[in-house]
Amino acid sequence: AIPLVVAINTSLAARNGMLIRDRIAMEEARDLDTIVFDKTGTLTKGEQGVVDVETVGNVDAEEALALAATVEGDSEHMIAQAVRDAAAERGVTTRTATNFEALKGRGVRATVDGDTVYVGGPNLLSHLDADVPSALASFAERAGENAQTVVYLVREPSNGRAGATRHASREGELVAAFALADVVREESYQVVDALHELGIEVAMLTGDSEDVAHAVADDLGIDTVFAEVLPEDKDEKVSELQEEGKSVAMVGDGVNDAPALTRADIGIAIGSGTDVAVQSADIILVQNNPLDVVRLVKLSRASYRKMQ
Ligand code: ADP
Ligand code: MG
Questions:
Q1: CATH assignment at residue 212
Q2: Which family is this protein grouped under (predicted)?
Q3: Does this complex have an ipTM over 0.85?
Q4: Of 128, 159, 181, which residue is a domain's last?
Q5: Is 110 in the pocket of ligand 1 (CB under 6 A)?
């Protein structure tokens, strides 16, 4: 039989928009030491739009947007949507892409007019080992200071063209960078303060750059930051905290967050989370409101205090 207190607690939870897939997790929530949040789409609203474009060489902003929007044509990422919107707003015509491939946690790749073209963030650059022209480096630095996410456009010309027009190298060439402005959710400030009052540490886990991560974390008063983390490494960061003897919850919405949700003592999927995230979570916060994380801890503490 289900203990009465648990039954009451689960229906109370349900009334508050919390779906409990694992009742033990609900009980354990009172003992959490650290809560790790995914940044994009969880603490922030998700990418809002392209606010700036910088190009090098003979590529102009329109051409860069056309190429980027073409490569992003099939991606479901919020960044891809923002790039496509920016191209559409400027009336830029996209071209045809083939061999589209999503590079998890890095970006996308496709073939356009025979060239291999990439769009992606800092994790893509380290993957490609590409040099960043100084104009794009300072553009990225400025954007980072303003907590803007930067993605790069990289072109790898096909052999023939490369020989004809530039050095006979097959290396990718960075031709443009885009700055995207995201907005911190109003509730996120209250979440961090309230969790601190409950004696819980707050951490952020993101695939975005160190610059952006620290700008957002400083703004919110977050204690620990893990940035430029590849999807396959996210669960390791949760383990690191657990190895310090901490009881850890992970809050996220994306496919990329699934292993970390599984690894955490309590996995919490938020809002319109992807199916994979929802299936990996112990608790699902139906309303897309990070404040429900605070309610969850308070509800757990109130419900289980008597049982100790
Ligand atoms: P987060 O951890 O912030 O939720 P993701 O793991 O989804 O982010 O992506 C990590 C990083 O990979 C992004 O910040 C971006 O730099 C890059 N990226 C992923 N998908 C795309 C895409 N479709 N277009 C451009 N960049 C992308
Ligand atoms: Mg995310």
A1: 3.40.50.1000
A2: Belongs to the cation transport ATPase (P-type) (TC 3.A.3) family. Type IB subfamily.
A3: yes
A4: 181
A5: no
